[in-house]
Amino acid sequence: MPECPYDLRDYLFDELTPAQRSEVERYLETSTEAREELQQLKLTHAALLRVPDEETPRRIAFVSDKVFEPSPAMRYWREFWAAAPRAAFGLAAVLLVLFGGVRLVQPTVTVDDTGWRVAFGVASAPAAVTPETSQGSVTSEQVRQVVLEVMAEHEEQQRTVLAEIVAARQQRLAGSNAEVESVKRDVRELRQDIGDSWRLMQGSIEKLYEIVGERSTLASVTR
Amino acid sequence: MIFREAEDRDLILRARRGDVEAYNILVSRWEKRVYNYLLRSVRNREDALDLSQETFLKAYRNLGKLDDVERFPQWLFRIAHNEGVSMFRRNRLTTTDDLPEGSEGIPIAFAGSPISPSDLTLAVEQALDTLTTEQRETVLLKVYQGFKFHEIAEITSCPVSTVKSRLYSAFDALKATLAPVTRLGS
């Protein structure tokens, strides 16, 4: 008589895979002794579970105590790091746009006997640049287009992050008025960050226009 | 193991930030399980209550060290298990000492008559008393608390193979001890 393929105790405690359980069940159909053994195991298991749980004689509870509460400094530190990712993202986004714009146009200021001038690209001798000799001159319109594209991309990123933050927070904190208020505060803060970013952008663009002017031709942009 | 993940997770995170009321709610959900686990371990109601309070106190102080809040049940019972072990070492309890009150001299077998629930309870408790401490711990965690073998291994800090060996040898002993009772009860 072949033996049971697996330990009946593994079967009882649901430690087998479905395929293994099926094998045991097929074996049980052929072995009266195995069925009796399993029945005895089940009765033992049931007997153990018949012993009811007791209620705790008295409730276990904790009161607010300075021993257990974090200090105000520790609470502030934890709150700061909870908000830090948000602040860091906003700052990183602003810096990325600014650095990206600066890197793109690479403004350099040169001062000589004739005064000072701002050039874009690698600083070189102030040679006259003619349309025939310029290599890939960039107009103010092209600069404007590039800046607008960067701004649009930044705005899209902000929208995506905002939507993710709101969705994640709403999912986790649904039903709690206090937590909904917290999400609203986050949204307001992020919108303020976006607004601040836009204002910085606008300021940068206005300065660029002042420098470039409407009719000047820029030197070639080099990396 | 029933773990209301969404709700308990929030309570744990709030408790970590110092919300004592959130922790009290968490305690109210787990105190009965922890208390009964310790009660069946140490077989004394006052000791079990004291150990339960110590368990939850230590859990609160060390919540920040819980890396994965999903593993809170195993983590909590590990603390409870260690508290029970510490008490054993302090008191050097043996299986022949501190039997439940009123259980002395009551035979396990009740020939010829149906077994009442209270008699069955006493029979089971006496049968558990015949096990070694390690075997009884494993039975309590597996049968009464529903932990998987790898979770029990984590709680008791021993290999899964050891946990299985202890449980199966305990179950064989219980099956033999409770055979007269289970025949009557079936």
Structural class of chain A: mainly alpha
Number of helices of chain B: 8
Rg measurement of chain A, Å: 36 Å
Predict the CATH topology of the largest domain in chain B. Rna Polymerase Sigma Factor, Chain: A
DSSP strand tally of chain A: 2
- Uncertain ranges of chain A: 123-135, 217-223
Strand order of the largest sheet of chain A: 1-2
- How many structural domains can be distinguished in the coordinates of chain B? 2
Task: Please state the overall shape of chain B, judged from the principal axes of the Cα atoms.
Answer: globular
Strand content of chain A: 5-15%
| Helix-strand sequence of chain A | HHHHEEHH
Notes on the structure:
The complex is a heterodimer of chains A (223) and B (186). With 223 residues, chain A is mostly helical. Chain A has a domain at 92-212. Chain A has helices at 8-12, 18-30, 32-49, 72-105, 140-172, 177-212, and strands spanning 107-112, 115-120. In chain A, α4 packs antiparallel against α5 (140-172), α4 (72-105) runs parallel beside α6 (177-212) and α5 runs antiparallel to α6. In chain A, 7% of the residues are buried. Chain B has 186 residues and is mostly helical. Chain B folds into two domains: 1-94, Rna Polymerase Sigma Factor, Chain: A; 109-186, Arc Repressor Mutant, subunit A (Orthogonal Bundle), CATH 1.10.10. In chain B, 70% of the residues lie in helices and 0% in strands. Chain B has eight helices and no strands. Chain B has helices at 5-16, 20-42, 45-61, 72-91, 117-129, 133-144, 149-156, 160-185. In chain B, α5 runs antiparallel to α8 (160-185). Chain B is globular. The model of chain B is unreliable at 95-112 (pLDDT under 50).
